[in-house]
Structures are given as C-alpha cells and as structure tokens.
Amino acid sequence: MQSERMYAALKGLGKEARLVMLPYEAHGYRARKSLLHVLWEQEQWLDKYLLLDKEADTETTETVADENVN
User: Fold this and answer.
1) Nearest-5° angle of CA 9, CA 16, CA 5?
2) Rounded alpha-carbon distances, angstroms, from residue 39 to 32, 36, 43
3) What distance lies between CA 66 and its chain's CA centroid?
4) Computed from CA positions of residues 19, 28, 41, 51, in that sequence, does the dihedral angle turn out positive or negative?
5) pLDDT single digits (tens) 16-54
6) Under a CB-based contact definition with an 8 Å cutoff, are residues 19 and 4 in contact?
7) Is residue 46 within 8 Å of residue 38, measured between CB atoms?
8) DSSP state, 13?
9) Nearest to 12 by CA among 2, 22, 1, 4
10) What 3 state SS string does 26-66 have?
11) Which of 17, 64, 57, 59 lies closest to 41, judged by CA?
12) How many whole angstroms separate alpha carbon 65 and alpha carbon 15?
C-alpha cells in the first residue's frame, strides 16, 4: 500500500516512476523467479541511471582533453 501511494505521488508530480509488484510475494521475495526478476530490475535501473551517465562523462572529459591539446 505504501509503495502504491509513493508511486501515485511521484506520477502526480510528473516524475518518472516504475512500480513492479510480483505475484504471490509479500514484503520479502522467496521464489527463485522473483529474486531473478528483482536482480534484473536493479540492473536495468543501474544501467539507465548510472552507466549511461558515466559514458556521457567520459565523452565530455575526452572532448575537453582534445580541446586542450589543440
């Protein structure tokens, strides 16, 4: 219930949000399939919000380094 309220509040503010509710699971995950899905969700989040930013930072650093050489 709290997760649903947080999701609704974020969406109401126009923020990007994703709510994933797994069937047959309560607060903790027990099924192997559920655990694997949670790990996949985490990896997707990390790739989207951390990995891509690092790639952009690397490109910016390389551009600045190239400008300093010339």
Assistant:
1) 20
2) 11, 5, 6
3) 32
4) positive
5) 999 999 999 888 889 999 999 999 999 999 998 888 655
6) yes
7) no
8) T
9) 4
10) CCCCCCHHHHHHHHHHHHHHHHHHHHHHHHHHHHHHHHHHH
11) 17
12) 35
Cβ-Cβ contacts under 8 Å for 37 (sequence gap 6 or more):
20, 22
pTM of the complete model: 0.62
5 token code pair: 């309220």
For residue 34, give the amino acid letter. S
| Burial classification of residue 25, based on how many CB atoms lie within 10 Å of its CB (0-12 exposed, 13-18 middle, 19 or more buried) | middle
At 19, the amino acid letter reads L
